[in-house]
Amino acid sequence: MTAISNGQLKALVERLSTTYFHLSFGHAVKFNNHLRSTGGRVVFPKSGRQILESKIYMEINPKLDDKDLPGIVKHELAHYYIYLHKGLHRENDRDFQALLKKLGAPRYSPLHTRQKSFYLYECNGPQCHKYLRNRRINLRKMRCSIDGATLKLVSERHLK
């Protein structure tokens, strides 16, 4: 969790923008608590097919650590400045990837890595059938598919 305010975030974006791109980012910057796995985004509002350049803004995930924040801001600024020179682009464009490498910005969000879980269930019937699942199951509803006996959770493992 980052401990800076929206004003400090705006100052950080301006400082990184002038340092790396020699231009000012004259748009709004704010934290968005609704972002989950993405580090941030630059929003290009449209009216029909036209992008409203006066309404462009940047949103940053407040769940980022202070050490990850500058990298994510550089990533989002790269999106913005590639848009100014080339127009809309995609994450896997070669020039965008080259710019990220030059800036030392991450290609992916550090929040994107999800924890992988494995659940082992066992049948309470006489033959003790085993089931390995990626998701939890509702033990009140689900039964053994072979003999119809109830199931119990035997073990749960979380991998990163």
From TrEMBL:
Pfam families recorded: SprT-like (PF10263)
InterPro entries the UniProt entry points to: SprT-like_domain (IPR006640)
SprT-like domain segment(s): 7-154
Top-rank lineage group of the source organism: Bacteria
A single GO BP: response to stress
Full protein name: SprT-like domain-containing protein
The organism's taxonomic lineage, starting at the top: Bacteria, Bacillati, Bacillota, Bacilli, Lactobacillales
